[in-house]
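task queued by scheduler; priority normal; single chain, no ligands, no partner chains; default sampling; output format set to structure tokens
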Amino acid sequence: MSRFLIVRLGALGDVVHAIPVAAALRRAYPTARIDWLVSARHREILDLVPIIDRRLVISDRAWGTGVRTAETQAQGHLSPTRSLLAAIRELRLARYDIAIDLQGLIKSAVLARSSGAPRVIGFASRYARERTARLFYTDAYDPGRGGLYDPRETRHVVDINLGLLGVIGVTAGKAEFPIEDVDSAAACAIREQTGGRYAVLNPGAAWPNKRWPPARLAAIAVELRERHGLMSVVLWGPGEETLAAQVVAGAAGAAVLSPKTAIADLVALARRAALMVSGDTGPTHIAAALGTPIVGIYGPTRPARNGPMSPLDITVSRDAVCQCHHLRRCRLERMCLLDIEVAEVLGAVERRLAAESSRV
């Protein structure tokens, strides 16, 4: 086996959680070709993963608009294709031995199968996001518990992903996230503004019921400055600048607004931060992969499955009482996340900083 295709289109945190699969393949097959099919929105993080040979980028508008291919970062070449059929022809030219679908959607399974690889590996029906994706695999991995969203499944999604490699005889071992150490103008500007010591607060999330109130994050920023002399940098993504500005406005000078950031900026900011406080969202997973100390605030998703993997990191969760697991919006009048008060998160912050005091 010398040619592998990984299919994980998105979202950002899920792409990060799949990087250890590529790392494990590279350890097992040092000279193999390892390509990755990814959504255009989430390609940037893979540009910082040097063990990947090619990034094959599919349009976020999906099927009708085709895909383009990105060669290795050093070459930096984009070759647009006019249609999905042309993209599939390009996939087939690579003559992959194995295609691995880590997404579990019908779309991703079809793309993996269309690559022409003689073996197409994915998850068993109860672990696929769309059960009929299983029909397109030659081999299916069943992790052997309740299912993707079953509360009895307490393993981290990274470990579940790595388990799939057992189908081809690869024992993964410890998860590795080979993300390049980069710096950026935005990160340099923040270091100058904060004196080089800062925490990162992230109020945004794609799901509304993953967002802790900005006023409470502002209170955390105030306490971080008073107790530890740490300024806070408030992140924001598309459509989230207003949320971030509310945190800054309520922090009485203890927080600054991050500039607009690309993924490389986020990596540079997170890697040098003393702490990140955030919900279950892509920037949190990037920071966790980099080893940044994390305090996670979790409502409709399970920290055991989606939380940071370091035993030192702390999550404040309402998973045990949440009635809207894995729903984008709360079905009740009051989100369970609103039951998490500032004092509880602040206690977690103090414990996390004490566990790694060298970074403060």
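post-processing summary
- Residues 69-82 have pLDDT under 50 and may be disordered.
- The longest strand covers residues 33-39.
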